[in-house]
Structures are given as C-alpha cells and as structure tokens.
Sequence to fold (788 residues):
Amino acid sequence: MLRLIYTLLLLTISSIGICQVGNGILFMTDTEYQFPGTTVDSTSTFEFQVVNDLGAPQTIFFSALDAPFSLLDNSPIEIAANDTTTVMLIFEPTAIGTYNGSLEAVGGVFGSATLNFSGEGIQVVLEWTPESLVFDTTAIGQTDAQVVSITSSGNGDGVISAIEFSNPVFSVDSATSSFTIAEGATNDLTFVFAPIGAGAQSGTATLHTNDPSNPQIVLDLSGTGISEVSGDICDMVWTAENSPYTLVGDVVVPEGCTLTLEAGTEVIGNDYDIEVLGSFYANGEEGNEVVISCGELISHTAKEQMVFTHSEMVETNSFDFFDADYRLLRDACDSLYGTVDSLPSFLDSLVSWDYHYENENSAMHIAKFYEDFNDNNSQGWSHEGDITSSYVSQEYFVEYYYGSSGSYFNLYIQTPTLALNPGENEAFISFDKKAGWWSNTHYFYVYISIDGGAWEQIYNETNPSNSYTNTSIATEVSGANSVRYRFHYRMRHYGSLRIDNFEFTTNFYPGFDLPPSFNSNSLSSGGIDLHNTAFIGDFHSANDSLSVNLDNSSIGVNPNREKDSHGLGLYADHVEIASVQSAVSGHALDGIHIESDLTDWISTETSVADNGAYGISVNGDLDWTSTEDVIDGNGEDGVDVGANSNLTMYGPEIWNNGARGLAAADGSVIDLDYARIEGNGSHGVDLENTGTLNMDNCRLLNNSGQGIQSGSPTTLNHCNLAFNGGTGLVLTGNNFHTLNNSILWGNNETNYTQIDIGGGVISTSYSTVQGQSGYGVTGSGQFYWGEG
Fold:
C-alpha cells in the first residue's frame, strides 16, 4: 500500500513539471542545473529532493565534488523505505569563469542517480554619474526630475534591489527607471523632487546593489522649493512659513481635491484666477489673517466647501462684468449646463432683460439675429426684381415699383447669410410686413436657401394686407451650416413691400435675449461662506440652487474696474442667504442683485450702502426676515423686490437712497416694525396690489415722494409720516385700511394732502391727521373717523 501511495505521489509530482533522475534512487530535478551568475567570493545554493525508491531502507553515498562546488553535508544519508530527504548543492566561485560538475548518488542496496550542473563566477562592477543631484528650483506643488546613469562594466548583470530616501520630498520614478542593468549596458534611474514647502531641501538616496565593492551607493540630493504655483492643486496645505505664494498661472482646485490656507498665509495672484471645483478653506485667525489677491475667485462648489475665516480676499481683474459678449455667455453656460436650454428656469422669466445686439449681424451671436433697421443701415440685406426705387429708413426696409402696364411685377428682399452651428436643427423667423398694391390679386411668398442652394418656398399668402402684420415661420435645418431668406411680392401696376422687425432664432435659443451678464472669466456656479472676511470685488454665481453666508464680513468694490458689476449677483431657481453684521457697499450697480424663482434670506445688522444702482434688487419671490439692517445711500431704490415676496423686518433703517426706500410688486406681504425710512429720493414705501402692508412703530420722514403708496390693504399703528414731499399716505384699490395712534403731518408742502384714498375704506382712531376736516384728506374712498 505504501508503495502504491508513493508511486501515485511521484506521478502527481511528475504531472506538475518536476523531473526525476535515476533508478532506485531518484533526484527530483532536471538532469542538468545551471546556477545563476554568482559574484566571486559569494555563494549560490540549490536544494533538491533525493528519494529512496525501494521498499527497504538503504544508505545513500555521494561522490566527492571539486571546488567551487560542494554539498552542504557530503556524509552518507540513511533513507527509509520509500522516503525522501533534502540535499543542498553549493556554488562558491573564487574567480571569474564558467564551471561544470556532476554529483552521483549510489544506494547501498540498489540504484543510482547523477546530476550535472554548471555555474558562472561573475564580478559585477557598477559605475554611475553624477554622484550627486542638484534639482532645479521648483514651485510647491510642481516637480523636477534628474537622471542618474548606471553602467554595469564588470562581468554579469547589475541589480538595484532597493532604494532608501532620507527626505520624503525626493523619490524615484519607477515608470521611467530600470533596476537591472545588463552586462555592458547603461541604464537610467529618474529621481524626482516634489517640494511641499519653500526653502532649501537636502537628503540622500541609498541604492542597495549586487556590486560587492559598492553594496550601497549613496547619492547626495538637494533642491530649493519656492512658493510659485499654477495649474491643478490637490490636497495641499499652504502655510505662513512658505508665504507668500505667488501665482504664475491660473490655479484650479479639481473636484474631490482640497486646498487649505493656514493662518497668516499670503497669496499674490498677479491677476491670475483661482477656480474651485473641490474644497477651499482659508483658515485665518484674528490678528493672523489669510490675505489673498487674484484676478477672479470662481466657485463651483457648495458654500460649506468654499469657506473664508478671518481673511482678506481681493479680486484685481479689470474685466468689466457687463461688457461680456454673447459668445462668452454661451461658453460659460455650455461649460456649466451643457446647453442653454438647461439653464436655471429663472432665465425664462427675465422679460425685463430685452437686450438686442449693437451690431445685429455680428458672427459672434449664436442662435439669434435681429434687425429693425433703426440704424438706417441695411447691414447685408439686398433687393432684386422690378424695382424703381429702394431704401432703408429707420423703421423698415422698403422697395417700390411704379409701372403702367397690366403685367405682373416682382419685388424681392433678401436677408444676409445667417450662420448655423452643429446641433441647430430648427430655425424660426418672425417679421412684420406691409404690402401696398394697386392690383386686384397679389401674392406674397417666403423662400429659404440652405448652404447657398436653390430657393425653396416655405410660405405663401394671397392678397396680403396693406397694413403691418406679423408672420412667424419654423423650418427644419438639420446639418446645415447657413441659411438665407427671401421675401417675394408679386403684383400688377404699382406696389411696394416693407419688411421690419425681422427676428431669427434657432433651437439653441431659449426664447429671449440673454443679457450680457455672465462671463466665463468670472461666473461661478457655487456658493461662498465668509466669516470675519473682507471680500474686495464682486461675487456672481449661477446654478439651479445657491447658498451664501456672510458673517461679520463685507463685499467691497474692486478699484481696478472702470465699471463695476453688482456686488453680490446670484442667479438660480432657489437662493439661500444668511447675513450677520455684514456689508455690501460701494459697487457701481446693485449692491445685492438676485434673479431667482425663490429666495430665502435671514439677515441681522446687515448694511447695503452707497451702491450706484439698487441697494437690494430681487426678481422673484423673496422670503426675508430682517433684523436691524441698514440700506443707505444707494443710487436708486433701497429695496426693490418681486411679486409674492414676504418681508418681515424689525428695526430697518432705509434712508438717503436715490429713489424709493422700499418697493414691492403684486402679492407681496410686508410687515415692518420700528422701521426708519427717511430721506429717500421718491416714495418711502411703494407696494403694488393684492398684498398686505402692516407697519408698527415706524417713522417715514422727508422722503421726496409719497410717504407710503399702497394698492394693498394697509395697517399703520403708532407710525409717524411727516414732511414727505408727496402725500403722506396714498391708497388705491378697493381695500380696507387701518390707521391707529399715528401722526400724518407736514406732508406735501404744495397742498398739504396727508391722505389720498382712491377707493375702499380707511378706519382711523387716536391719530393726528393735519387738515383732517379740510385740505388734509382727499379721494373717492370712504373715511371712518373713530375715537381719538
């Protein structure tokens, strides 16, 4: 049974590729073995199994070996029946050369086996240059590479088995290095310097080799790190010790990466931008602030990932935000959303932004062409046919035919060639036409030419009107590079054709003229979080939703701009703002400008002052809780909010603004407590219809217009409306109003009208109204004079 098991074992071993040598006695190896090249005076070993293939024990005797070969133990070995033992063969050359030998084993009972072997004595000699590396001055976040060339000049292949570095800023680039050097060959090792701090760096690289004379090669390494940075920055910490960090190109923090600035860090931007798609933290401390300047700070991340604490952020770019052209707008939108159609839906309602282009035929305008001829210039339009005279007025393109025969005559007006872009597959035209005739039957046609091809009719009309009428036509233009349109008027005797207000759009165009408000150089798509930070510049961001936090911080004007934009411009479906003891001031346009379907804002002791246009302008629903805010000295309205807004304001000071103090559109609900609304250039409060106005303990004084103008139900408790340039209280609509414990005095110094109610009812009690029984009140509404 044991014999059978052992035979099966040998068969199994044989099946996996191990050879058997001998008869009765087996060497479990190939018939020949070659030692690897072995350095002189070093040792190589080879182990193999010796098997007694008999059913009885026997002694195995080995032949003597000549140097440089030997057995670890050359003594006879007693091996039990069908048993195995291990033998170690040693090769130890003392000189360079090739050696051969054989080992014979003879059994004391039966059998023998012979193994032939050979080996080469080698002498590896490694030579290298240079013996030390001095790296180029390298910016933090960048790398420099230097090469060491190693030659195996002796007998045999050189091997670098390991490399150790004393300073982690140095490393080896394994991908470009060869660690085995063939005999007579030269290979390169590429070493890399990647400083993480500024200043001189030094270290060593220790190479472990098979050169007996140089088992360790030590290279001296040195380099200088500087704080010049550009390009992608990922998971880095910038420190005060390595400041200042100087930008030598735009810096991008990629998505998933973080850049952290420790307290006391300074960044000199040289007008280069910092664009953040990952996370950015400026962790200043009081008295040890982070100071940053850059061309534009561009956020593409949530506010919790763009955080400034005890910092100063200065934008230096002189780019004028509202001078951006349409192509830059489209590029910005494409990079953010893929196509214009996927912009936030707030853009669909910007009817007030009805911009047309100064040069209406410019090739830079994508998906939109408009011509109303108001510059008295045909700008590429042409005419053909039976034309007696033709000209362009400031209102239309016109051509005439004056004839006397009864034949039909033809007039043609043609547009310029309009460029298309890949993906534009539908074209839409709209125009006003006027066809004047002296003919019983006459005809009007529209043709299209695609990529300069033949004219194809896309519209016809019999007996068109002799007054201006508007026509709209849609056509398929898939795969086309350009289109052109022709208007054809066919009539008898006399006639004229006038074309005006021609508008061309494609499926790329969302249906209105986008304002040149965004620029790829300065448009963010994420929020920002400022704590005890001075932000000098403007922050504009567009996305589906945005969030901004201002905590003891300010957004001031960039002095390098000839024309500034809004201080804080937010464009989204949903905007969230939190502001505490913060200020937005000094901007040439609006201080805070928001275009959003819905805006949620909680503010405390926030100042919006000295901006050239509106202090606060919100287009869309605003839900605002305000506590002791100051809106002061802005060029136009202090606060101007959209329809259906909800304002709860405690202790606001709204004064010295160039137009209205507080204006709200239809459906807005305003609740003012302890408000001071003074010295504004128009009405103190102006509320449109279908909302409500509640004011308690408020003072409206010396506003140039009406103290309050309201088309909504209005309640005044303990309020003073005095010495306003217009009527103190102007009420319109069929609403019920309440006036309690209030004073209206000295308003409208021309006729001293204190209350003008155009409809509805006003109920008063315990109030003083100058001239109440005569000149002080007017209007078709009803007055109910209660107690007091």
